[in-house]
Amino acid sequence: MVEDNYCFSGNLETRLKKGTRPLRFLIIINLICGAWYLQWRIFNSINVSALWLSIPLLLAEIYCYVGGVMFFIGLWNPLERRIRSLKYLQPTLPEEQIPNVDVFITCYNEPVEMVEKTARAALNMDYPVSKLKVYILDDGNSPEMRAMSQRLNIEDLQTPRLRQEVKSISQRRSQLLANLEQVETLTPELDNAQQILNKFRIKVKPTKEYTKKVLRWFEKQKPLYVPAEVWQDCHLAVLEGFEHQIIKNSLQIEKKYLTLIDLTILSYGIEIKIWDNNRHYQTNKLFTSPNLPAVNEEEGQHLKTIAEVMDSYSYISMGNQGNCLTLYKSYTAIPNMEEIATKSIMAGYLKGLTELVLQFNPSLSHINQYLVKKRAELLDTIEKEELKLSSLLRCHYIARPKPPGKPHHAKAGNINYAIFSGSTKGDFILTLDADHIPQAQFLQRVIPYFFSYNLMTGRYYENMIAFVQTPQAFYNLPSGDPFGHQAHLFYGLIQQSKDGMNSAFYTGTNAVLRREALIMVGLKNFAADFQKDQSRLEEFDLVGGVSSNSITEDMNTAMRLHSAGWRSVYHNEPLSAGLAPDDLISTLQQRLRWAQGTIQVLLRESPLTKEGLTLGQRLQYFQTMYSYFSGFGIVIFLLSPIVYFYTGIVPVVDFNNDFAFYFVPAFVLNRLTFMMASWGIPARELWRSEQYAIALFPLYIQAVISVFSGKPLSFKVTPKERQSGNYFRLIIPQVAIVVLTVGGIFWTGIQLLIGTYKEPALFLLNAGWSIYNISVLSIVIKAATWQPSEKD
Predict the structure, then answer these.
(1) In whole angstroms, what is the distance from residue 610 CA to residue 563 CA?
(2) How many structural domains does the chain have?
(3) Which of 22, 546, 721, 730 is deepest in the core (most CB within 10 A)?
(4) pLDDT digits (tens, 9 = 90+) for 637-647
(5) 3-class DSSP state for residue 108?
(6) Cα–Cα nearest to 433, from 594, 580, 593, 621
(7) What is the pLDDT of residue 290?
(8) What is the 3-state secondary structure (H, E, C) of 623-654?
(9) What's in the keyword line of the UniProt record (predicted)?
């Protein structure tokens, strides 16, 4: 649900999730109580006569406790984030800073209609149309998919938003062309004006030989409307000012600088500027009226004469332009000379305007350079507007080449090819699976995370956030969610807690990533791989930042970004919805890939040894990898009551008072802690999650064995359409456990009834344990037989 009412100051609010502090207290008590139970198990309860069973069970319990420690500590700092949408930022993000975004829709063999829905939704997102492009990354190189993207392009151009954008760009372009025409028309006129202005300036060497030349030049500029006595004073000031320059020149070792004299005649005054390009001046020789510096007698006499005949004067440094002696004399024009004065006065005003332009453009030394600069700027802006017009084709199709014998790296290679070789240029990348349809406000809600506002400078700047992950939601879940796809615990408390340790997971879809971060990390890891194996040079065109080191490229990519110092954000607001697998074989295939890929990362790029990760990040990544080894412990928990029913062997010496004294508080506290941590999530969903965590033990064991055996693993796209077939072959281990457990309960129960078995309490304990095992395993039996109803 988009937050329209902002009841917080600033653009972003980050706070601890409600209930975190009491949860922390309960976590501590729970872990202490669990350790208390374990020490009893280790030192007082092992059945030495059945070590083959008691030791594996104890190790399974220790494994679970260690996993629980990591899980609950990982929940220590869950963050809740609220942010203003892009259009509501305060102050508004300047239009030129709004980044370009590329939407990558990854597909392989999905139906064209499915990808079209996603692409249409992406094109319709609320974002400036000139800054959004959609790329269909087709790893299957389908002609139908290519044709669909071309059709979408044409339809997109007919939408009101695109038509309005075309109109706006065309209007701006027309105005720019008019401005360019005006500049080009003014250029020759300005050249003529510059020729007129050149008559009012002279450049000479500051030596005695040039004094007469300067004075003759000055006399030629005398206008009729200036009183003779005023002109005589100016004549004298020019002479004294030039003599001042001659003296300064004589004091220099290298006498190479020139003197430039500028004359500006206005209707109310005369300004004379005498420039020198000598930058080796002494600061105590600079002055402004009415003060004069302490100088030698000859130089001082010249300056005193200037002070007597002129109204104001100054000698100041103009930086790289040198030093300037400025003299000013006001006057009243001779009556009836206005028409005669016009041409000369207009030249004076033109001179003043020229100097004003150059004053605001200090890098320019000539007025013509200003026009040249403006013309270049206009041409550049026109070109950009024309590029905007051409870039309004917003739906693009990319099918990467797949030469035989060369690694392709599935989804990771598909994305990396688009980044490196696919002519994509966006500052940010939104990755979407083929079936995940984004909401209109997706980018409005996510892009603001990548900018921070500096109060000191009053500007936005890009921060170090590499990606923002949003939840995965599904629009095709049947009632009861028989395959356990709802993941409010993971896409809630768990991701928020990872966010609190700057280790939010990238899950491959519904996330925006910074291109700069991906490319930097991609090049860094490629260089490291190349040092180990130079044959990987042939994969250079796949460098893009998404990891190809595992079939779960998303988590590994996030870990690499974190280890390189980049930050991440989890935004807990569903902004897209996709298709969840609705058959058991697709569900198991998807989860086997997750398990195998995660264990691959542990073996190839362990977070425990990877440089750059913080302690919290190592914990979060390793805890996820550690959890996939649970299959071996689950087998022990499932088989222990079966062994008891058929053999009478128990792995614990005392299943009576001592066991209850130590186990019950630890178990109850553990359940209470989990309940408090998952508060707000429907109990049915939590139970379904717990069922699948146990019932998929064969899949976890298969994942571990397949990875450790070195068997090559391939990325398999999860089918988006229901698969037909008999699924009981997929759950043979679970069915066998259920059958043996039910048989064991009946076998021992009959013995209890006929009196051959004398321990009803022990039977009830194992029967309760077995009923729990049957209830969690029953979910996969239900999933194997599930058929969609009419309302589903």
Answers:
(1) 7
(2) 3
(3) 546
(4) 999 999 999 99
(5) coil
(6) 580
(7) 79
(8) HHHHHCCHHHHHHHHHHHHHHHHHHCCCCECC
(9) Glycosyltransferase, Membrane, Transferase, Transmembrane, Transmembrane helix
pLDDT of residue 381 exceeding 90: no
Is the N-terminal amide bond of 733 cis, ω within 30° of 0?
no
**Any domain includes 227:** yes
CA-CA distance, 643 to 554, in Å (whole number)? 42
pLDDT exceeds 60 at position 235? yes
For 413, 605, 710, the CA distances from 713, given in Å and listed in that order, are 15, 17, 9
Give the per-residue pLDDT at 82.
94
Helix (H) or strand (E) run with residue 467 in it: strand 465-469
Q: Which domain holds residue 321?
A: 199-360
In a domain, 391, yes or no: no
* Partners of 102 in beta bridges: 133, 429
Between 102 and 387, whose confidence is greater? 102
pTM of the model: 0.78
Question: Which pLDDT score, from 0 to 100, does residue 192 have?
Answer: 63
Cβ(235)–Cβ(241) below 8 Å: no
Q: Which residue has the tokens 């009632």?
A: 479
CA distances from 237 to 306, 503, 783 (A): 5, 76, 104
Q: Which helix (H) or strand (E) holds 380?
A: helix 367-390
Q: How deeply is 541 buried, as exposed, middle or buried, from its count of CB atoms within 10 A (0-12, 13-18, 19+)?
A: middle
User: What is the pLDDT, as a whole number, of residue 2?
Assistant: 47
Lowest mean per-residue pLDDT among 70-79, 319-328, 503-512: 319-328
Same domain, 408 and 555: yes
Per-residue pLDDT tens over the stretch 504-531:
999 999 999 999 999 999 888 888 777 7
Same domain, 244 and 317: yes
The span from the CA of 654 to the CA of 126, in Å, is: 66
Give the residues across from 136 on adjacent strands. 105, 397
User: 723 φ, ψ to 5°?
Assistant: -95, 140
